[in-house]
Amino acid sequence: MNNKMLLEIKDLAIHYITVDGTVKAVQDMNLEIAEGETLGLVGETGAGKTTTALGIMQLVPNPPGKIVSGEIIFEGENLIGKSPNELRKIRGKQISMIFQDPMTSLNPVMTVGEQIAEVVKLHENVNSAEATEKAKQMLLKVGIPAERSKEYPHQFSGGMRQRVVIAIALACNPKLLIADEPTTALDVTIQAQVLELMKSLKTEFNTSMIMITHDLGIVAEVCDKVAIMYAGNVIEYTDKVNLFTTPKHPYTIGLFNSIPDIESDVERLNPIKGLMPDPTDLPTGCPFHPRCDKAMPICSTRVPANTEVQMGHFVKCLLFEEGVVR
Amino acid sequence: MMGEVKGLQPERLLEVKNLKKYFNTKKGLLHAVDDVNFFINKGETLGVVGESGCGKSTTGRVVLRLLEATDGEIIFEGKNIRDYNKTEMRNMRKEMQIVFQDPFASLNPRMSISEIISEPLIVNKVYKDKADRMKRVRELMSTVGLAERLTYAYPHELDGGRRQRIGIARALALKPKFIVQDEPVSALDVSIQAQILNLMDDLQKEFDLTYMFISHDLSVVKHVSDRIAVMYLGKVVELADYNTMFKNPQHPYTQALLSAIPVPRLDVHRDRIILEGDVPSPINPPEGCRFYGRCRYRQSNCLNVTPELKEVGPETFVACHYAGNLKPAII
Ligand SMILES: Nc1ncnc2c1ncn2[C@@H]1O[C@H](COP(=O)(O)OP(=O)(O)OP(=O)(O)O)[C@@H](O)[C@H]1O
Ligand SMILES: Nc1ncnc2c1ncn2[C@@H]1O[C@H](COP(=O)(O)OP(=O)(O)OP(=O)(O)O)[C@@H](O)[C@H]1O
Ligand code: SF4
Ligand SMILES: [Mg+2]
Ligand SMILES: [Mg+2]
């Protein structure tokens, strides 16, 4: 894609400083998203996906969290260091986020129409009547009859509530939508509805998107490119076709081998051995080395650099690094 | 696979007939399990799938009599266990165990791992001697892959995968024949989930176990199951071996459900059936097909006549008036 670059993350590191030690939740992160592009951010519990999203939104809770280094360039401007006032104008208008728990992101004592209208009023120069009208339009867009705008969240099913959340997130036509596991809590037929809706709205508005998920099936379906995270690091980053046809990092390959393949009969899964490392006490060298079936002696001492194995395909693994004695 | 050798009937371990479980709620009678029929053969895994609230867990609990059924028969090794009195049922419980989704919520936080695994052995007075009992606990821990150093650890010190191993060890303690697995891997990361699925497969072979495996993850269910029951709003709508079901789903709901699975491959393209609307309320459901409101093939009689689960092919059961003969809805 030769579209204009919308977001560039450069050398980002985010830590949480706790009594149990420092959690390096995001380390040495480099990503970019062009206009209209969807990036999948994939990883297991604690990999640092939500922290990355909060970093982009400048909403990392501080304390204990802190952006220790890096830049987040949105439309040519670094978001780090912007004033709270400037950020408020960007959030919800330019960049909006669907949070991991859909049920907690709606206000139980406001009607869904009011909640959409509120965001519109905050960011656009409109009066109440116009905002209310816009809210109704947005509800229709997500497949909810406009007359239900006067109802409260508890009167909706889980799938409809998630659609309301999407309507709020897209109400001001943001350039970037960050969706943190937007369908994890939903049943698969409802998930299919919601994904279909997100795809069509994205095309309609040419919105860029970061789709956070642990489901490689969702990646196959909606993403253009993918970043796989493990223990705070993006260990593989490439376009979707490369990721599915020539995955390189042993963790990525392990993930693929761990999921049952619905298209063929595999008698036995081939899981990654061992457990997630303690986030306050990550292994030395490559954080994945204790679980890696390709690990070499050097992997426990040397931190892998981000290596471009072929054009646009980045891997953090010593197997692919030049000048490493294997 | 079953049915290959004609005349050689697999042995049925469990059969459920016209099973019902209704709950009294403020809004009315909630039909959680409504006239359900299925069977499980010895040594096999029956997968149970369906959307949240369709009655999977309730079915599992009712089958074990952890909840009393409203009506119907639960035939285990040829006997209706609903007729059993307390003592008979207590003996029966040794044969039938359950593993829950959330290993944390189902384990007593104040008990050490060895205490949790010993508990069923103590309650059922299996060993006179404490040393024998501890030997069995260590044996169970090693069977499920828990390191011996964890004997006196507490659940909160462990990750989800290890906690699930404790749940499995406890379920195995009394050497059951049948285990209901209620979303046993749903709370786990995929790498850990795969470890637990392999473990359960090993145990099934080693101890000749029969599983009822409840899950909303269809890829997992297909992987573990010999046969699959699809539930919708308290009803079993399709029951077939996993191959038949995935190759040729017959019920309109099964078709939509299977088409909705996101597949982690680029070489597979699915024609997705997007269902309109939401699941209706299970409170005082009307006569007729429960899937009527969302069905692409509904006809006028579907609204009033409840479709029964009937055999449409060898060992393949579907509850749809038009199974095998679906015509686009005109209404
Ligand atoms: N407020 C906090 N204080 C301390 N540590 C935190 C905080 N929030 C997150 N962490 C830690 O930072 C790491 C990354 O967490 P994060 O929530 O970003 O992971 P995630 O990839 O979103 O995981 P999940 O899939 O479970 O949502 C984890 O080790 C987590 O425990
Ligand atoms: N003790 C109870 N009292 C009243 N209603 C109940 C009770 N237990 C379950 N239900 C209701 O019975 C129906 C079936 O619930 P059940 O927990 O069996 O569903 P499930 O298929 O296991 O769903 P999930 O996938 O969310 O676990 C639901 O409508 C539920 O709200
Ligand atoms: S065709 Fe009729 S019976 Fe069959 S699923 Fe649709 S509504 Fe139900
Ligand atoms: Mg998260
Ligand atoms: Mg359940």
Structure write-up:
The complex is a heterodimer of chains A (326) and B (331). Chain A has helices spanning 49-57, 84-90, 112-123, 128-141, 158-170, 188-205, 216-222, 240-245, 250-258; strands at residues 5-18, 21-34, 38-42, 65-74, 77-78, 95-98, 176-180, 208-213, 225-230, 233-239, 307-310, 313-315. Chain A is of the alpha/beta class. Chain A has an 8-stranded mixed β-sheet with strand order 6-7-8-3-9-10-12-11, with helices on both faces. Chain B has helices at residues 56-63, 86-93, 113-123, 130-143, 160-172, 190-207, 218-224, 242-247, 252-259, and strands spanning 12-25, 28-41, 45-49, 71-76, 79-80, 96-99, 178-182, 210-214, 227-232, 235-241, 310-313, 316-318. Chain B is built from 9 helices and 12 strands. Chain B is of the alpha/beta class and 331 residues long. In chain B, 28% of the residues lie in helices and 23% in strands. The mean pLDDT of chain B is 92. In chain B, strands 6-7-8-3-9-10-12-11 form an 8-stranded mixed β-sheet, sandwiched between helices. Chain B has a 4-stranded antiparallel β-sheet with strand order 2-1-4-5. The chains are: A alpha/beta (326), B alpha/beta (331). The A-B interface holds A 44-45, 157-160, 187-193, 195-196, 214-221, 240-241, 244-245, 254-263, 266, 268-273, 275-276 and B 51-52, 159, 161-162, 189-195, 197-198, 201, 216, 218-220, 222-223, 246, 256-257, 259-266, 268, 272, 274-275, 278-279. The complex binds adenosine-5'-triphosphate (ATP) (2 copies), iron/sulfur cluster and magnesium ion (2 copies). One magnesium ion binds at residues 56-57 of chain B.
Broad CATH class of chain B: Alpha Beta
Largest sheet of chain A, in brief, is:
8 strands, mixed
User: pLDDT under 50 segments of chain B (min length 5)?
Assistant: none
Q: Provide the succession of SSEs of chain B.
A: EEEHEEHEHHHEHEHEEHHEE
Mean pLDDT of chain A: 93
- Name the largest protein-protein interface in this structure: A-B, 46 and 38 residues
Please state the CA-atom Rg of chain B, rounded to the nearest Å. 21 Å
Instruction: Estimate percent helicity of chain A.
Output: 25-40%
Uncertain spans of chain A: none
